[in-house]
Sequence to fold (271 residues):
Amino acid sequence: MDFDINSILPTLIAYLPKVVGAILVVIIGFWLAGKISKMVGKMLSSRGTDATVIPFLTSLIGVGIKVIVLISAAGMFGVETTSFVAMLGALTFAVGMALQGSLGHFASGVLLLTFKPYKVGDLVTIGGGQTGHVQGIEIFNTVLKTLDNHKVVVPNGTVTSNVITNISGQGNVGVPLNFNIGYDQDIDTAKNAILAAAKSCPHVLDDPGTAVFVSGHSESSLELATRPFCKSEYYWDTFFYMNEHVKREFDKAGIKAPMTKREVHMVPSAS
Fold:
């Protein structure tokens, strides 16, 4: 069958303005959605709104505006708005059934904002072991910034279904540390070396004081445990300082690292 361009040209000419208009509406609408979201975010920040809530609200507003823009663009093609809304409602229900996990992440985000187990800036361990500072709680995800400057996105449903550890939650936190020494080393000398390292650390607090205990016996070493306290923002600084300076103090005191030993018994073969 021959294709006659002249037969469809009037139709193309008639719909071309609508197509161009709809595309412009989508482009401009999506651009405005980003601008309005940022403007609302700045306004909320200037009014002292909780920084944890702002990313959630701005992302929700942005999504809402984009949905309205898409409905408007569809209306330019002659789609009845009421019919479109009804169709969108049915589609939303179908998609919702297929994407129950995403809706669960949204509900979990609302719970996180309601009960506030952490806020923006807190150092947390969430999602079954992801540790970092909270950058924002969004509609479906919590965004973390790790110590090595990685961006980690954890689904909100994964957060609420696992243990949440807010390292910054109490203001002052203990830094759990363990050091091993050989059985032939003096315990008191090793304890004093660890305490000396804690005393030299500029971030370790005097109250509560630092204590050192024997926490375990392994095959070839004794384990000494300590938990110096510091302000939560200095957690990692204290952690790395103590690991380095305890080694230095051990060297000064002559404390040796444990060495694994094996006894081998040679049994002569019968001949």
